[in-house]
Amino acid sequence: MLLSVFLHELLTTGCTVLTGQPDSFEPADLHAAENLLRDYHAEDATELPHTAPSFNVEAALWAATYLYQAVKLALVRELDETVVHKKLRDFSGDKTPAAIYSADLTFRYLPDLLLIAKGLAPGDALVVRLQATARQWPFSSVGTDCVGAEADTAMLAHSALRQAYVDRIIRAQDRVRASQKHWAPLVHAALGGHAATLWPDFAAFMLPV
Amino acid sequence: MLAATDRETLGSVRHLPGLQAAEIAGQLWLGGLPAVGELPLPVRGLPAEAIYGLDAEGRLFPNGQRTPTARLPVGLAWQPLRVFVPLELPTAALPAQGIPSYRVRLRPSASAVAAAGLLTTLAAWHAYAETAPEVRLHCLRFAVAADARVLLLGTPLPPLPGQELWLREGLLLPAGFDFEAPLLAPLLRQKLQSSPDDVLLFAADGSWERMPNAAILPVTRSAVRLTVEDFGR
After folding, report:
1. Substitution target from B128, B131, B135, B221 for chain A, most A beta carbons within 10 A
2. CA B164 to chain centre
3. Is pLDDT at A74 greater than 70 in this prediction?
4. Which residues from chain B sit within 8 angstroms of residue A47, using beta carbons?
5. What b/e sequence results for A111-142 when a residue is b if at least 16 CB atoms lie within 10 Å of its CB, and e otherwise?
6. Exposed site from A137, B181, B207, B233, fewest CB < 10 Å?
7. What is the pTM of this model?
8. Which tens digits make up the pLDDT trace of A153-164?
């Protein structure tokens, strides 16, 4: 299956169907995928608070390819750890705000994939790899238990990513992240005096008796 | 032939078929009567000044005479009697009564009720929506008027300058005001609402405006931004 077709289905319907072995992609397909991601970035940026980070082609394509391969590997469970590491490589560029947001265009589906993969075979090489990636990309992994100890400084420093991350924490009611020292004051500020309405048990876990 | 002043008496023969009338020089001429035999009873009751027979040359023969004494005036404009003597509605004995009107008035109220809406400006709303937490936006709905006023509905309302509103019987009133006659609220809603989902917004001076429910949109950041863009064009 073409990467561009995979992306089109994912970004327009939110679901996709893959079968068979992991693929490699032709330049024309990658170019089409890049255009899809660029358009989606422009559309998605209208929902982001403040001014959205710009589009980073490398990060967007890397994350899309990573997700595609991860979905395939989740289907073909007999592939060993070597194949997992060969197909699911780390991002080689800098993790700038643009890279974080561009990767997130597809990495926002990582928590769902992780849930599916853990359900199929918890603790296998693919799940471990996905968890490691989720920890490296906290902006996209809200709602999972893959939480790094240190705050992502690039995300914390960028007003749009910072606010969007807090929004995601509240939307997913992610207690672990909401309790982290860097984020707790920001979550508090976002809820303001309406925490009891907007996150009913917020006070219970933030201020344990 | 009748005097012109006796026009109204023709009403009594208006129902007879085939009659025609014309007016000239202060005289009314009634035609279309049978040439032989007795005249119909209602015709005989008319205050006629003279009754003539008419020949083809327009000569007039006094009733029962064989010698003509005059000619039918030239230029008579004959009209069916129903047209010549049209019906008029009689004047009512009692004057009609106008529909009583009631001017809606609002007065300051001492009761404090939780706000259900906020009337603010598009500039303030846009500035807030640009940076507000998502959770504070998604609980709201908004509508924008042509004069860039923004109505926000939902809870909790954003901390923006503007007029707070509260709900009475489904009607939005300015905070701190109530109807002078509160019992009229359900009646007003029934009279003014064209659809159950419409929102009726009252001002402190008693004026009101209706907003269709379809014009009040769920809040997303993109919806606010696109609305502002539309206003800028």
Report:
1. B135
2. 36
3. yes
4. 220-222
5. bebbeebbeeeeebbbbebbbebbebbbbbbb
6. B233
7. 0.73
8. 889 999 999 999
